């Protein structure tokens, strides 16, 4: 959104996620400066997305593992770059991140998470076997958060690719 079109509606939309000093065309990320072309939608979407990123019941490392698998499967470069950084901060190693691209992991539960993402993308539901496998470490709410996280980030990938959002330039 061009800087001269940033108004109170844009500020209110971004306030859901960003502190005041980052709610500017220069300091907000490319995804947010694109999404605010529709401030009302952005505001409501960010409420949901902030829940998934910061308040969900999923362990952050496993959340990032799932998002990275979505990014890989949807070929979302922006999502991949951003969530490699976030995943690394949450403890994912370079080898684990490389495994996401192969759909493989050394840890059996990590493999179940990756397989769960694949199943949701392929069939739009989790089988009883996968639901049960995820239940070895996730309670019901965590499994629900898992499904919504995968769905949300598929939507984000579609938006990023459709709108042509480019990864941030290193500053």
Mean pLDDT: 96
Based on Cα principal axes, name the global outline.
Answer: elongated
Percent of residues in helices? 55-70%
* Total beta strands: 0
Question: Span from first to last CA?
Answer: 20 Å
Largest sheet: none
Q: Any idea what the radius of gyration is?
A: 17 Å
Describe this structure in words.
- By secondary structure, the chain is mainly α.
- The model has no long low-confidence stretch (mean pLDDT 96).
- Helix 4 (60-74) packs parallel to helix 9.
- It has helices at residues 8-15, 30-35, 39-55, 60-74, 77-89, 94-102, 108-123, 128-134, 140-163.
- Helix content is 67%, strand content 0%.
- 33% of the residues are buried.
- It is elongated.
Concise overview:
Helix content is 67%, strand content 0%.
Task: Write the SSE topology.
Elements: H1 8-15, H2 30-35, H3 39-55, H4 60-74, H5 77-89, H6 94-102, H7 108-123, H8 128-134, H9 140-163
Helix pairs in contact: 1-3, 4-5, 4-6, 4-7, 4-9, 7-8
Give the tags:
0% strand, elongated, mainly alpha, 171 residues, single chain, 9 helices
């Amino acid at each position: 959104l061009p800087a001269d079109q940033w108004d109170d509606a844009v500020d209110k939309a971004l306030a859901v996620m960003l502190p005041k000093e980052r709610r500017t065309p220069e300091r907000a990320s490319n995804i947010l400066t694109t999404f605010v072309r529709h401030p009302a939608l952005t505001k409501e979407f960010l409420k949901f997305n902030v829940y998934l990123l910061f308040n969900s019941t999923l362990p952050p490392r496993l959340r990032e593992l799932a998002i990275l698998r979505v990014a890989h499967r949807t070929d979302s470069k922006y999502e991949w770059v951003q969530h490699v950084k976030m995943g690394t901060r949450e403890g994912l190693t370079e080898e684990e991140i490389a495994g996401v691209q192969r759909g493989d992991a050394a840890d059996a539960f990590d493999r179940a998470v990756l397989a769960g993402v694949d199943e949701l993308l392929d069939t739009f539901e989790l089988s009883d076997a996968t639901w049960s496998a995820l239940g070895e470490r996730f309670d019901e709410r965590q499994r629900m958060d898992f499904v919504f996280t995968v769905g949300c980030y598929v939507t984000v990938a579609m938006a990023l690719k459709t709108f042509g959002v480019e990864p941030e330039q290193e500053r």
